[in-house]
Amino acid sequence: MTGDKRIDSILYAVGDYFAAMFVWALFYYLRKYAVVPDYDWTNLIQESNFVKGVFLIPLGWMILYAFFGEYGDIYRFSRLKVLSTTLFITFIGCLVLFFTLLLDDTFGPNWTHLWSICTLFFLHYIVTAGVRMIQLTLSSAKLKNRKVWYDTLLIGSRTSAEKIYKELTSSKKSQGQHFIGYIVTNGHHSPYLSNNIKQLGKVKDIYNLIEKKGIEEVIIAIEPHEQHLLEPILNALFQFDNVLIKIIPDIQDIMLGKVKMNHVYGAFLIEIDKQLMPKWEQTTKRLMDIVGSALALILLSPLLLFVAIRVRRSSPGPIIFAQERVGKGGRPFTMYKFRSMYIDAEKDGPQLSKDDDDRTTPWGAAMRKWRLDEFPQFWNVLKGDMALVGPRPERRFFIEKIIKEAPHHRHLLKVKPGITSWGQVKYGYASSVEEMLQRLNYDILYIENMSLALDIKILFYTVFVVFQGRGK
Predict the structure, then answer these.
(1) Mean pLDDT score of the chain, rounded to an integer?
(2) DSSP character string of 393-447
(3) Which class is 150-272 in CATH?
């Protein structure tokens, strides 16, 4: 998101703040006036509760909006969806205010409680929704008039791509695309496309192009007989959180439920929904990660100290083993473990651990059985490299091997890796590429069904497995 788009998104949040400030000030005055009809409004600014509320309560509203994912690129927002989510969040926020501030307030007779929550709800919704609709209508006009746009990559080079390009560029009202080039599929070119936009490469070049060109939107316009290209295309695109993907859907895929969609653009483009969890669940998951990891490091500190001492005595070498792993979006990070092997265990190259591995120290084998070696990864979770629950992070060496057998492994890079996973609970440590492939199916299933409830279930079973000593 660049320049004007970022500023407008900030102004959208500022609008929420001042709308909430105005509503609380008006509500506070009306509440006074309902009980004391001759109340002098000039006394309002002298009341400390009013002054505190008029500045702090709007901040509370903004935190609530952020928790539900209401802030982002406003040029991607649907006005109808904003109206409905604003209604829901207003209801939640008013309930919170009622039970925290208004219910125990002895101001006025009992009937004012019902009057208060109803008045606050309607005032807040009408004013906030009104301010938001004005801002979104103005932003929509800027987008349609081509004052704001997104650098767009077209994937396809034949009839479908040509048709989409003509339709989007010839329309009087823009949908926000600024085409910087197209990707050739199956080696065939459209003369029309070649004369109007640059050819930027082939399907294998998509990842590098998006990184180098800062592409914000991708339109997939491949032919029906090119459907076999869809998987490698999506594998590359799903590694970028901020790239919007639109596609000419295959009607059979839609009917079979293979394509998730949330916004419909005319009759020819459908947006692919990459959001695996609602924003509020994502935020809650991250809070669970932070709180859970911090508590684990604090409460288990005596055990961590004991394990560290045993590692030191078990064999020469460092207590903590650090190794580069591949995280979300294919980005590398350093993962930490208690060292369970002798020094130079991989002098002959990368190897997977296995049962009765002679590279493992006696204490290392005990740690792995009870998964004590994983405890330093709580620090990785606090740093944001990992989550409590997610596919186990692998080294690039083994990822490249797995991808040759199962290209859909790239789907695991859509989420943060975790200390434990569905596949980890089922199979434990993988000792071969074949076992990695078996574990992959469970990790893919987890990603496609991500939820807080599933995370809690996996954490429960992980604790159960640890206490049984069934790690390996």
Answers:
(1) 86
(2) P--HHHHHHHHHH-GGGGGGGGS--EEE-HHHHHH-S--SHHHHHHHHHHHHHHH
(3) alpha beta
